[in-house]
Amino acid sequence: MDFSYQTRNQIITKLKETELDLLVIGGGITGAGVALQAVASDLQTGLIEMQDFAEGTSSRSTKLVHGGIRYLKNFDVGVVADTVQERAIVQKIAPHIPKPAPMLLPIYADPTATYDMFSVKIAMDLYDRLAGITGTQYANYTITRDEVLQREPELTSENLLGGGVYLDFVNNDARLVIENIKEAAERGGLMASRVKAIGMLHDEAGVINGVRALDTVTKEEFTIKAKVVINTTGHWAERVTELDQLNGPGQSLRPTKGVHLIIDESRLNVPQPTYFDSGLGDGRMIFVVPREGKTYFGTTDTDYTGDYAHPKVEQNDVDYLLTALNQRYPNINLTINDIEGSWAGIRPLIASNGSSDYNGGTANTGKVSPDSFNNLIDVVMAYQNQTATRSDVEKAISKLQSSNSEQTLNPSQVSRGSSLDLGQDGLITLTGGKITDYRKMAAGALTLIRDVLQERFGMAVAEIDSTSLQVSGGHFDPTNVDETIKFYQKIAIDKGIPDHEAFELANLYGSNLGRVVYYLNDVQAAEGLTLAETISLHYAIFEEMVLNPVDFFLRRTNKLLFHSEQLIAKKEAYLAAMSQIMNWDDAQVVYNTNLLNEALAESRLDYLK
């Protein structure tokens, strides 16, 4: 079955008629990962998402699959170990999405700084060892003050000591979600966007066995029956459990908002992702990342109690980030009028999780125990006197104990910062964590789901190796990414697509590129659009469940964020093409035009300017 607006009604009909083994509520990265692993385990699986796939937190991250070197400042070695190992797995199962991008970490002489030149080298060496990249082309190194300024002359030289360079990965967060969703759908999963859970169903014993759902497109209410239901709705998790009066007390969340802003690279051109202390004495660190001719930076971290469905960038968010950037790059003089795009997201943090910086830096109050700290000092002094090795220093770091460090997993965790709970009536809730951990979180949930199905229904569910379960578009050798992307690029070039557009298509769609260019057999370039733009639009509509232009421009591609000026110039051509493909009537044309205009205006912060 195709995965499109045309087959959506068929998918919903099957959801109504089928008793599922598993129903997943929530179509962000966590739910997508659970659904794929469940389908691969031969479970009859459905997934409902009340918005578009990835419309919440999973399209609003820093867009990195990063290893969490900042967690080493609290000596959360376990967090870093988990993160870098999972990052390698994500690169293996979705090789067309995360891309290696060495990160520059400038070091300043500041009493509130996270690292000095000695500690950053120790941290990076430990980071590399945990990531298994020691001795490779991506191994870390330090550079001098002058070398930092040669790379980024706009950086302030005041109190600059030097810098470190270590491996990180840039990411396309929304693409990672949709590729998991598509793979699950291709394997037989019933995946439906814009279907909202509005109530829970129970059997005579009070055990959950389905949901009442609302199709927000047609406004039809219906029921979905399932042996097991899992709530993977992120920051909505508590609100979903509130629908279930028999669930019992669930995990409390502490949602925080993170904001990122986009400017043109002509205003600030950085050669590589850069990561530094905010310089504002608040313990926060700021990313500055080059991407597609733009530079974006963030993030903020503030407690959030507003509209969960529609977090917005506010003036104080802009002021904070501009202050930090203008302080570190004192000659650029950025103002709000330089901002070309933005996004705001909500992190579903676990309220009881004590790991401070893992939780966004909002509770950095723990102190390292005196004994373990003194031991570290002794080992470092011995290292400086050449009577101890670097390995000795790393071992001393790993033994540090902090009052807020997550050294071990709680029983309800499957990754650090996550929570996996089984309610009194059988509702499973998986929340917290971060995008890099999604595969591990899903695997932990599947272990519990298998146990529940065995205990309640006598079902023996086979275990799978999810570390090699590749997503849609990622079915190729992850050790040979560059050459494979060139191969896919040539397929598009041979079909008449210019080199640069062919390269963009190959990176966006990976092993699905052949399916994208297949549309050239039936379509010609739409008026005002290139061939590449036309076939990308067709593919997204017919094979990626695009229901409106914002789905396409914001979450199937990044055009609304990183190419808004080109999008504005071609907006009418795109809308005309979509109208023709999807047979919009006059009212739908008006609705979708307004929807796109509103999204563009909000991203460009017109309401603040």
TrEMBL record:
InterPro entries: DAO_C (IPR031656), DAO_C_sf (IPR038299), FAD-dep_OxRdtase (IPR006076), FAD/NAD-bd_sf (IPR036188), G3P_DH_FAD-dep (IPR000447). Its cofactor is FAD. It catalyses: sn-glycerol 3-phosphate + O2 = dihydroxyacetone phosphate + H2O2. Pfam families: DAO, DAO_C. SUPFAM superfamilies: FAD-linked reductases, C-terminal domain, FAD/NAD(P)-binding domain. Keywords: FAD, Flavoprotein, Glycerol metabolism, Oxidoreductase. Residues 21-353 form the FAD dependent oxidoreductase domain. Residues 468-588 form the Alpha-glycerophosphate oxidase C-terminal domain. Its EC number is 1.1.3.21. One of its GO terms (biological process) is glycerol-3-phosphate catabolic process. The keyword Transmembrane helix does not apply. It comes from the Bacteria. GO terms for molecular function: glycerol-3-phosphate dehydrogenase (quinone) activity; glycerol-3-phosphate oxidase activity. Belongs to the FAD-dependent glycerol-3-phosphate dehydrogenase family. PANTHER family: ANAEROBIC GLYCEROL-3-PHOSPHATE DEHYDROGENASE SUBUNIT A, GLYCEROL-3-PHOSPHATE DEHYDROGENASE. This is Alpha-glycerophosphate oxidase. It comes from Ligilactobacillus ceti DSM 22408.
